[in-house]
Write a structure and sequence with these properties.
Distance between the termini: 108 Å
Strand order of the largest sheet: 15-14-18-17-16-19-20
Structural class: alpha+beta
Largest sheet: 7 strands, mixed
Number of strands: 20
Mean pLDDT: 76
Radius of gyration: 45 Å
Strand content: 15-25%
Length: 590
């Protein structure tokens, strides 16, 4: 039995006691000393460290606790009082109690819920990932002797749990008794059972029961005296414990200034990252980001007060050092400066927005962009010669421009672009570009310029639409196919596609008749009059309808593209816009 009960025989003499074993007492003593040392180190280290709740503990509480319970004052108590003051104080007091042998069984019982809480935090951290160290397990001592991982800390928690059970079950004295000596008393259940069997044999059940009740009453009085004496000591300890906790709580409540508890980075890639900011009180935050040259990159703000904010940063440059500051409630004051570096890029630089401009009789300018700063090279050659000429742009840039000179109107030219970024990753443009300086109504050739009058009397030049995609539609009012296509072209005009203009050239006819026809069909088109058929001849138009699509550089990209709906023609126009007149080999359908 757990209490030192004296067993009497019928004559009132003491039954001789058995030799007392020391194994249980030594195991309890060793376990008490080990737990006491660990709790003493853990509690003192946390109290000596800055009084802030570790980010792992904050994340754990936020994850498992119902959000309805996490009111501002509950969060204040948890993060400013319980975690940084009460729990370390409890560890320190329990460690001292176990080391000096003050009610060790009670101390062991109180250690068990603490150990379970610590183990739960570490199990959550292991399953969630993202934590390389435990949540300030030993406080300031970790800065001297090194940090533990959550796995290592969980192993220590399991050992502490088993040691606490050992003290509880093997401590040989009463529940609230102190440790007296190294050779603690052993259990006496066997002696009690032997005496009970002896009494039954000698005196029978009724007299044995009377003897048992008499001795039990005597021993219960003795046990009660021991318990009441130990409860006075226990009451004093509990009073001291709550006095310390109340003092720490009062000192903590005096400082109600919101502050940043921790800042961590996650999901860092070559162009993005996530910043997690943990506060001691619910507040909104503003993050101001700058690059390594102190150039302002951007600011991100939250609108809902909270104690934990995850702010995604995007649009960053690869392998670039950034630093940021955090301010609370849009105040001017901010926290310290935090730094991080984005990852190197995984993919080569993308080449896009390739365009041809400034086309003359012997030159043309090619411009393009890269997704990030890169040096570029352009190789070009003619259809009549396979010899490639290279122009190298060695400087790192995003926008690139090269003027090709010494060209001939009699030839068709091809070019290929290659880009290499600062990390040695290279990429070629998906397709070769093609163009010609010749002025002819052929695909890849320069569209002949013209000047015509419109139905409303204005003068229209083809060159005035430089930089825009021009849809050139040759038609006749008496052409049934033309009349069939005009409503589709009207739909395209109504879409108001950016940087696009539709010119409808009527080959012959009276202006009034053409105007009346358009009004009768509800058409609102820009119609030009080719009275002398000069433009018709320049473009080699033999039959109607004939349709050309000219890019912003004045190069013909499509002739008579097939379309049976306005959507199909719109898609063709958008291809020219997206490719900016040069990507790929344009096709034509005659």
């Amino acid at each position: 039995m757990p209490f030192d009960i004296i067993i009497w025989n019928v004559s009132g003499e003491n039954i001789p006691k058995k030799n007392r074993t020391t194994a249980a007492g030594q195991a309890s003593l060793a376990s008490s000393l080990l737990i006491g040392l660990v709790f003493l180190a853990s509690g003192s280290g946390k109290l000596l460290a800055p009084h802030e709740a570790p980010g792992q503990v904050v994340d754990f509480i936020s994850a498992i606790a119902p959000q309805a319970l996490l009111t501002p004052w509950v969060l204040h108590f948890l993060y400013n009082i319980l975690v940084p003051y009460i729990l370390p104080s409890a560890e320190l007091i329990l460690g001292i109690m176990l080391l000096i042998g003050l009610v060790p069984r009670l101390a062991a019982i109180l250690c068990i819920p603490l150990v379970i809480a610590f183990a739960s935090t570490n199990i959550w951290a292991i399953t969630r990932g993202g934590y390389t160290t435990c949540a300030s397990c030993f406080g300031i001592w970790e800065n001297i002797f090194g940090h533990l991982t959550p796995t290592q800390s969980l192993a220590i928690d399991i050992v502490l749990f088993l040691l606490a059970l050992t003290v509880f079950f093997l401590h040989p004295d009463a529940f609230l008794s102190n440790r007296r000596s190294l050779t603690a008393v052993s259990f006496r259940s066997r002696a009690w059972l032997s005496n009970l069997q002896l009494n039954f044999k000698q005196f029978g059940f009724r007299r044995s029961a009377l003897i048992y009740l008499t001795t039990l009453s005597s021993n219960l009085r003795r046990v009660w005296k021991v318990i009441t004496g130990d409860w006075r000591r226990a009451t004093a300890l509990v009073t001291i414990f709550f006095a310390i906790a109340a003092t720490a709580s009062y000192l903590s409540v005096l400082d109600l200034t919101p502050r940043v508890l921790s800042v961590s980075m996650s999901e860092v890639s070559d162009t993005s990252a996530v910043v997690t900011i943990t506060l001691n009180k619910p507040r909104t935050v503003t993050l101001t980001l700058c690059d390594d040259n102190n150039n302002h990159v951007g600011a991100w703000s939250t609108t809902i007060p909270d104690t934990r904010h995850a702010i995604p940063l995007d649009g960053l440059l690869p392998a670039t050092r950034y630093h940021f500051q955090v301010s609370l409630d849009q105040s001017q004051s901010s926290s310290g400066t935090y730094n991080f570096i984005t990852m190197p890029p995984k993919e080569p630089p993308l080449i896009f927005e390739i365009t041809i401009s400034d086309v003359t009789d012997n030159s043309a300018t090619v411009t393009w962009r890269t997704a990030r700063p890169a040096s570029t090279e352009i190789a070009y050659w003619s259809a009549s010669s396979s010899e490639q000429k290279w122009i190298v742009k060695s400087g790192l840039a995003i926008e690139h421009r090269v003027t090709l000179t010494g060209l001939s109107q009699e030839d068709t030219y091809y070019f290929r672009i290659r880009a290499t970024d600062a990390y040695g990753k290279s990429a070629m443009a998906e397709k070769d570009g093609v163009f010609s300086l010749a002025i002819a109504p052929e695909v890849t050739k320069r569209a002949p310029d013209f000047t015509l009058s419109s139905l409303d009397g204005s003068t229209v030049f083809l060159s005035q639409f430089k930089g825009k995609v021009v849809v050139l539609n040759f038609w006749n009012m008496w052409c049934s196919a033309c009349r069939k296509e005009l409503p589709l072209i009207q739909e395209v005009v109504d879409k108001q596609i950016p940087d696009t203009v539709v010119l409808n050239i009527h080959l012959a006819g009276k202006e009034e008749t053409i105007r009346n026809y358009l009004e009768s069909q509800g058409l609102n088109l820009l119609v030009l009059l080719d009275k002398d058929a000069s433009v018709q001849n320049a473009y080699g138009v033999i039959e109607t309808p004939t349709l050309f699509i000219i890019d912003g550089a004045g190069i013909i990209r499509f002739k008579n593209p097939r379309f049976s709906s306005a959507a199909e023609l719109t898609n063709t126009i958008r291809k020219v816009l997206d490719s900016s007149a040069t990507i790929g080999s344009p096709t034509s359908t005659n």
